Write the structure tokens for this entry.
Amino acid sequence: MRNRFAVSAVLLALLTACATSVPPPDKSSSPLADRGAGAWRTWVLTSGQELRLQPPPNAAATAAELEQLRTFAAQRDSTAQERIRYWDFWSPSHRWNEMLIDISGANPIPGGAVQRAFAMMNIAINDAMIAAWDSKYTYNRQRPGEIDRLFPASVATPRNPSYPCEHTVAAGAAAAVLAHVYPKEAQRVTSAAEEAARSRVMAGAAFPSDTKAGLELGRAVAARVIERMKLDGGKWAGPVPTGPGLWKGTNPVGVDEVGWKLFVLNSPSQFRPGPPPAHDSPERAAELAEVKGFKRTPFTNSKVSYWQFGQLGQPGVAFRLSEEVGRRLAEDGTHSSAPRAARAYTLVHVAHYEGWIASQDAKFHYWAARPNQFDAAITTVIPTPPFPTYPSNAATLGKAPAVVLTYLFPRERARYDGWVQEFGESRLWAGIHFRSDITSGWEIGRQVGEAVVARAKADGS
């Protein structure tokens, strides 16, 4: 018994020495360490310091936690290893974007609510990650495997301090936002966040106190994002304007969304285009003739269906954007930087979200009629959307995030340009949009995307 206490005393003394007298290892040597990410510009928090954590547990508590980790390591079975691998895949943001893809697909919501959900979640993860990096490099807590070089971690140890755990920062932030947007899924996402935390402890990549602090920090940031995103203006009460060349209908989808909170644009009307061609103008007559005269083929019809209903469809484009960011980050190796990955997802989804608001602003400013409201003989390949025609949401929602994607992954420019072109043109092929709807949507999207890129270039990253 005396020998066991002597060994414990020696271990405690060594841990105390590591904590107090030995400088922490330089974790900034990797180009992906992003040591300064705690000072990057935030979206909702005033700065990364706003929610700086209390110091991590002392050396004695750390020694006790290390003993816990040794016990857990001995208990790893195939099921535990599978969950460890699941949560360790790509960046901490990845699985939560994947989960939102699944949840939003199973729980369709109208208008721009999907774009809003992706923006909210990724903003929360982004700001939580910046706050985490502020605390990480304030305290420089060593990873379990740095304190005990023989400790059997089952994943590659991230090259940054241990406290708080970045995977649980993402989990706490994402799960809180998803539970708010999709309350029926609250239990599922809360359980997933807790599993993500357990996986990092079981893997030996983080101390239990690191994961606990990470969940709490993520949830605190999410609460601020949810508060910031409360909607203004209440329910639109109409009336729908009437007159020649104006849209005919009731309860237009998305009319309330013009008043949603913005992060980059100064106002919804900042990039509002000039008016569409007058209803009785030669320009409108020519556009109407183009829609009526377009020769549809099985190929063009398939493209219309693909962009409307397929993986890249609207609102499915939000799903594809997350998949694209994740894959390109993995291809570059930049997924290894949790804050840099979170930044990329956020920039793309903010452009998508604010593109929707800017497009809706113009729609409900001009109230232009759809092609088949000018000529009832026009048939459409897909149902005509229940809101005005000018400008095209699809054109805007293709272009705005594509501009940001091109900034992030410039080698893919031609591919993104192809997406934008085909997505926009497919709306004319479908018979639901005029040419000016598409070109004006592309212009709005270009300006929104460039505004987001300008912010990105000045965010300190």
Q: What stands out?
A: Confidence is low (pLDDT under 50) at residues 1-31.
